[in-house]
Design brief:
Layout (H helix, E strand, L loop, with lengths): L1 H23 L2 H18 L4 H19 L9 H23 L4 H22 L8
Helix pairs in contact: 2-3, 2-5, 3-4, 4-5
């Protein structure tokens, strides 16, 4: 009986590890993360030049992320899709605000909200697939 329990535990661990690996290998997620990192962290320091110059790239990466195939092994696909839609819509809104020369505070607030949505998506991918700053 102990061997059977061990076998089931090993199988479960394998599938969790596999799902986590799939999420880490999700190219479009990683590409979006790269742009988010290049823009959000400078904004935290008060430097909004990166987001102002990279908003079109961020928006394109968000759309590619949304259109990409969610790794089959991931749970919460519907919740991931919902948050991907929110991410795309948020980048569109931010792009419009930047284009009309919104205040730095508006830009920082909206970029922070996008960062939070991205964190939700990463959290939904796997408890083990954490977003690193």
């Amino acid at each position: 009986m102990k061997n059977i329990k061990f076998l089931f535990a090993a199988i479960a661990l394998f599938f969790i590890s596999f799902a986590s690996a799939q999420a880490k290998d999700w190219k479009e997620k990683n590409e979006f993360h790269k742009v988010m990192s290049q823009t959000f962290h400078p904004a935290e320091e008060g430097n909004l030049a990166p987001i102002k110059s990279k908003i079109a790239e961020m928006q394109a990466k968000a759309v590619a992320f949304q259109k990409s195939e969610i790794p089959a092994e991931l749970p919460n696909k519907e919740e991931i899709k919902k948050n991907l839609n929110e991410l795309v819509n948020g980048t569109k809104v931010l792009a419009k605000e930047i284009k009309k020369n919104a205040s730095d505070e508006v830009i920082k607030t909206q970029l922070t909200a996008l960062h939070d949505v991205f964190h939700k998506i990463v959290g939904l991918c796997s408890a083990e697939d954490k977003h690193e700053h």
